[in-house]
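User: I'm putting together a teaching handout on how multi-component assemblies are represented. Below are the sequence lines for each component of a complex, exactly as they appear in our records. Could you produce the 3D structure of the whole assembly as structure tokens, so the students can see both representations side by side? Please keep the chain order the same as the input.
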Amino acid sequence: MSLPVLAQVVEVPSNVNHLFDWPEVLPLGINRVVLLMFLATLATFLFLYLPVRKARVVPTKMGLVVETMVDFVRNGIARDTIGSQSANYEWLLIPMFFWLLFLNLLEVIPLVNFPVTSRMAIPAFLAALVWVVFVFVGLKKHGLNYIRHSLIPPGVPKALLILVIPIELISTFLIRPVSLAVRLFANMIAGHIMLTVFFLTSASYFVLEPKAVAFVVPLAFAIVITGFEIFVGVLQAFIFTLLTAVYIESSIYVEH
Amino acid sequence: MEADAAALIGAGLAYGLAAIGPGVGIGIVVGNAVQAMVRQPEMAGQVRTTMFLGIAFTEALALFGLLLFFILFGAGG
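Assistant: Of course. Below is the structure of the complete assembly, with chains in the same order as your input.
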């Protein structure tokens, strides 16, 4: 399969680093990613605001959808995990879930086909925000006891502390935000690469030998994977929000 | 040139090896979650949430491997 033929129909990236650099489309460093992020932010705002801006006894159809989804985040994620104090953290969890959902689902929207969360900037920013929130919550509730409780698990023999404290320090304050960011980023970019590979294979078969039906096989795979990516996008938004709630909960009840 | 080749081989190995452990781990997590759901269907919702949490923690290791693949591939390619 020769690449020049393929290059007539699709833009062939020179290597995998192509995934990580984009030209500007507007001044002030606004590239396609930033543009899509703004669009997703606007979509999140409109989705959460327009259908429920007037309180009604019987909600509209769209209002019912929004209410159900917000109810899922508020009760299914926040209250079930954090418990009675969950209302204090809804300002973070609810918008974050919907923002991530829209950013992730851009991956399967035709003509966009790009998950904004597959750029490290957004997961890294959100993970840093979550880190600040859970450390702040812990320090506010328990003062410096928060550091002591989170570094020294109950019931550990004194001799082992020299081993346990560095491990807990790294796992709580370093690995947590890094893995939170990497999980979202790597999941989305893996899906993006998988879709690219199958659609490109199909397109190249179609260009090189249109009469052979070989292009149908990768196309079928690509369609199945598109469905799978919708599931992954929703699941990753859910997991990111759930883990945020879990981390906040572990800061509030740090003694346990 | 040899260093590039080594980086590329390392990239392949990094992801391949990183996928073994989480593959087994996710199998164990989901298998036990299914057992729990079958034994106590009324707890299925809670078990499912915990299962996703467990998958997320296990899967992170494989994803670190994927990241390592990108880093090494960038160094070699």
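A couple of points students might notice: Chain A has a mean pLDDT of 84. Residues 79 and 175 of chain A are 25 Å apart (CA to CA).
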